[in-house]
Each structure stands twice: as structure tokens, then as C-alpha cells.
């Protein structure tokens, strides 16, 4: 059974201007030990996919959500709110972009991480390693020790002392490490990391990504890494899902998709990445912009920007077809490759 299985996920949002169909039939399967890079231009639905899995899309503005999201067979869309709360504290870990807004400046780092450890320990006593009859002070002590261990594990030097500092006494990279420690303290099976290193300088970014990679090797969790950075995906992800205007238009193993991109959007996205070897003026951008999701174009939503558009592209959304093992593409251009692969 897959760790995470998303089938035909649709999400609608209501705003002052009208109703936007922001996720438009997402399919995704994540196994343990896989790190999926979710990429695509701004506004294509990456964050809302992550928030839908943890069921954190508030209603309103969320209007409807249909399809299924299964965590080892349990459909999260039909789970009760208390069940979701315990899943979020234990089996699903989340890291968001900005460490300054996700730590409360008024409380010591230790108090915040110990709270998370106590919550996780309440859901699964084995996490704290104390018996069911342990007193509150014994549980608190175990939670503090666990918090210090986790902080040390994510590379906070002198964790036993730093745990009593306030967030403003930590650098941006260290605050992000604290958030990673918090997300991992419940030993999650699935980690959703939404641009976890965007606000950090490149050397800290590299350290944190290395840490994530090592943790996946050690604990065999599944990760969804939402990012704009295709270089990061090439470095640490095993798989990639390319999103465009609410759909996954190409997905598969990083090696296969990056070596042999089939969808014109993926090709354009890869051509937009600057490299040190490029000559001045050689960098290509993608012409046009993501469509307004209040009134998306008919058929393939990329058609108005596509240089290879054909009349049938606007008739219906092309189905996703396998063009090789671990490589699927939703584009009419991929159909001949699909028959050849079959
Ligand atoms: N609360 C909301 N109300 C209405 N529409 C929303 C709301 N939140 C997001 N959207 C719309 O949903 C679409 C997808 O948003 P989402 O945040 O998932 O994009 P994203 O791919 O993560 O973008 P970015 O890379 O900029 O974070 C966007 O068009 C956005 O305008």
C-alpha cells in the first residue's frame, strides 16, 4: 500500500472576484523513502496541494474539495477533525517557508518544541520513551530531553543551552532547523516541506537540504518538497511533479523527467534555469503567464502559451500517459511516445 495516494483531487476557492478551480484533478503516489519535488510557476497550486493533504485549507475561502487523499489507506478527506489533529501531530510533519512567523517570539524555543514533543508523546507514548503511568513532570523531563536530542540532530550546537534561548537569539538558518526539529519530533511518515530553504543563504540552504536527505535515508519517510528551485530538485529529490495551473502535467523520476522532458512547459521551465556556463543573453524565459483560474482556458491550460499547440489541445485536457517507466506526461505530443513505450 502506498504511503500517500492522491486521486483526482479537485479544489475550488471563492474570492471577491468569483470562484476559482485551483486544483483540477491531481493524481500523485508517494512511497516511503521517496522525495518528491513539486515544482511550477507561482500560483499553480503547489502550496494548496500540500495544505489539502494536511487538510488545512480553510472553508471559506475553500469552497469544495473532492477526490481522495489516502495515507496508507486512510482517506484524509473523510477523517474527523480530531483524527486529523492527531495525524498532524504524529504521522504528517509540516515545515513552512518563513521561520520568523512560525515561531512565537514571546516564548523560549525550548517551551515551543517541548509542547510539540508532549503533544506527540500524548498521541504515542513510545515517542517520549516513558511508561503510561509516568507523572506529568517525568513526561516533561522526557520531552525536554527529546527536544535537546532533536535540536542536536538538526545541527544546533550546544543544544542543551540554546534550548532556553528566544527565537530572536537564533539566526534564520537555525530557526529553520528548529522548525525541522519540531516537524520531525513526532517521527512523521510523511513530511510536507513548503519552500523550507527559500529565505536562507545558499550555504545554509545546502546544509538543511543535506539534513533532510539524510533524515529520509535514516527514517524512510516520504517527503513532498515544494520549491521553485529546479537545482534543489536535481540535487536531493528522487521524483518530480511539474504543476501547471492546478494540474500535474509531467511527473516521474527526476533522472527520467530532467533527462527527457516531454511536456513543452517542462522544457520551458528547465530552459529558464540560469547556469554559470551560459553566455550573456542565452537564458530563455517562458513567454506569457499562468492563466487566471477564475476563467481558465478550455482543454490544456498551457495551450495559450504553447509553441506546439494543436486544435485538439483546446478540446479536452489531455490524459496523462506513461512515456517510459516512472514517467508520465499529460500532452498530446507525448501520445506517440506512449504507444511506443507500451
Ligand atoms: N485564500 C485564497 N482565496 C482565493 N484564491 C486563493 C487563495 N489561496 C490561494 N489561492 C489561489 O490558488 C492558486 C494556487 O495557489 P498556491 O498558493 O497553491 O500556489 P503556489 O503554486 O504554491 O504559488 P507560490 O509558488 O507563489 O507559492 C493561486 O492562483 C492563488 O491565487
From TrEMBL:
One Gene Ontology CC term in the entry: plasma membrane
Keyword Membrane: yes
InterPro entries tied to this protein: AAA+_ATPase, ABC_Ni/Peptide_Import, ABC_transporter-like_ATP-bd, ABC_transporter-like_CS, Oligopep_ABC_C, P-loop_NTPase
Subcellular location(s) per record: Cell inner membrane
Record PROSITE patterns: ABC_TRANSPORTER_1, ABC_TRANSPORTER_2
GO biological process: peptide transport; transmembrane transport
GO terms of molecular function: ATP binding; ATP hydrolysis activity
UniProt topology in membrane: Peripheral membrane protein
Membrane as UniProt keyword: yes
Gene3D superfamilies (alphabetical): P-loop containing nucleotide triphosphate hydrolases
A Pfam family reported for this protein in Swiss-Prot or TrEMBL: oligo_HPY
Keywords: ATP-binding, Cell membrane, Membrane, Nucleotide-binding, Transport
Domain ABC transporter as annotated: residue spans: 4-270
Family (UniProt): Belongs to the ABC transporter superfamily.
Name of this chain's protein: ABC transporter ATP-binding protein
Amino acid at each position: 500500500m502506498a504511503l500517500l495516494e492522491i486521486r483526482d483531487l479537485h479544489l475550488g476557492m471563492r474570492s471577491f472576484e468569483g470562484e476559482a478551480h485551483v486544483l483540477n484533478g491531481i493524481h500523485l503516489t508517494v512511497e516511503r523513502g521517496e522525495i518528491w519535488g513539486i515544482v511550477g510557476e507561482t500560483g499553480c497550486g503547489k502550496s494548496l496541494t500540500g495544505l489539502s493533504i494536511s487538510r488545512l485549507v480553510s472553508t471559506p475561502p475553500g469552497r469544495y474539495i473532492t477526490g481522495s487523499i489516502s495515507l496508507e489507506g486512510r482517506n484524509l478527506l473523510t477523517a474527523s477533525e480530531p483524527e486529523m489533529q492527531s495525524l498532524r501531530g504524529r504521522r504528517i510533519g509540516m515545515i513552512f517557508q518563513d521561520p520568523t512567523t512560525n515561531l512565537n517570539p514571546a516564548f523560549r524555543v525550548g517551551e515551543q518544541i517541548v509542547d510539540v514533543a508532549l503533544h506527540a508523546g500524548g498521541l504515542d507514548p513510545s515517542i517520549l520513551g516513558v511508561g503510561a503511568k509516568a507523572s506529568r513532570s517525568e513526561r516533561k523531563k522526557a520531552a525536554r530531553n527529546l527536544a535537546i536530542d532533536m535540536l542536536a540532530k538538526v545541527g544546533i550546537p550546544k543544544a542543551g543551552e540554546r534550548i532556553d534561548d528566544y527565537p530572536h537569539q537564533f539566526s534564520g538558518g537555525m530557526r529553520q532547523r528548529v522548525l525541522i526539529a519540531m516537524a520531525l519530533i513526532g517521527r512523521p511518515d510523511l513530511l510536507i516541506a513548503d519552500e523550507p530553504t527559500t529565505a536562507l543563504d545558499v550555504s545554509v540552504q545546502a546544509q538543511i537540504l543535506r539534513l533532510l536527505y539524510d533524515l529520509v535515508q535514516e527514517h524512510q519517510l516520504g517527503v513532498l518538497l515544494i520549491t521553485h528551485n529546479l537545482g534543489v530538485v536535481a540535487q536531493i529529490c528522487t521524483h518530480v511533479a511539474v504543476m501547471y495551473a492546478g494540474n500535474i502535467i509531467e511527473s516521474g523520476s527526476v533522472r527520467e523527467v530532467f533527462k527527457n522532458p516531454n511536456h513543452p512547459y517542462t522544457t520551458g521551465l528547465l530552459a529558464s534555469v540560469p547556469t554559470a556556463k551560459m553566455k550573456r543573453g542565452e537564458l530563455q524565459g517562458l513567454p506569457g503567464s499562468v492563466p487566471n483560474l477564475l476563467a481558465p482556458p478550455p482543454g490544456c491550460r498551457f495551450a495559450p502559451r504553447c509553441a506546439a499547440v494543436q486544435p485538439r489541445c483546446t478540446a479536452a485536457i489531455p490524459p496523462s500517459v506513461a512515456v517510459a517507466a516512472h514517467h508520465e506526461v499529460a500532452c498530446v505530443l507525448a501520445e506517440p511516445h506512449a504507444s511506443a513505450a507500451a
